[in-house]
Amino acid sequence: MKISTRGRYAVRVMLDLAENNTGECIKVKDIAKRQGISEKYLEQIIGLLTKAGFLTSVRGAQGGYTLTRDPSAYTVGQILRLTEGSLNPVACMDAQPNQCERCDTCETLEVWQDLANAINNVVDHVTVADLLEKQRARLGNYNYSI
Which of 76, 69, 33 is nearest to 53 (CA)? Predict the structure, then answer.
């Protein structure tokens, strides 16, 4: 499984908004410049995040975007599922219950289930706040209040 640029950029956007939160809206052009992402592509990603309720959009000269909740309320898994769809390693696991005609006799299904569980265990237990904390610690700018 590979995470697309859209998924990776969406996580970066959420982290950028958390890191640069001053209580005022953040403009797309500022995020694009800091992250090295084209504004046009970034607008598509932000549109998806806004439609899902992850971001609030404010129009006008002082407009821009803000997170709708605290950074600790967003997991990497939520962001990736929004941008990537299913994180399952094989398509037959997307439907519940499994609709594959071979699922009762499939010798590899347990491997795919274990892999899916491992992936979900990681991405569902890392929040944007966790990433912000790691970033601040790495940069020597640790702040206990997020």
Answer: 69
Helix locations, 1-146, DSSP H = 5-19, 28-35, 39-51, 76-84, 109-123, 128-138
Residue identified by tokens 């995020």 is 31
Residue 36: Cβ-neighbour burial (10 angstroms; 0-12, 13-18, 19+): exposed
* pLDDT digit string, tens, across residues 34-54: 999 999 999 999 999 999 999
Which tens digit of pLDDT belongs to each residue from 49-100? 999 999 999 998 888 999 999 999 999 999 999 999 999 999 888 888 888 8
Q: For each of the domains in the chain, give its residue range(s) and CATH number, in order of start.
A: 5-86+127-138 (1.10.10.10)
- pTM recorded for the entire structure: 0.88
How far apart CA 33 and CA 48 sit, in angstroms, is: 20
Give 133's contacts (C-beta < 8 A, 6+ positions apart).
Answer: 142, 146
Question: How many Cβ atoms from other residues are within 10 Å of residue 8's Cβ?
Answer: 17
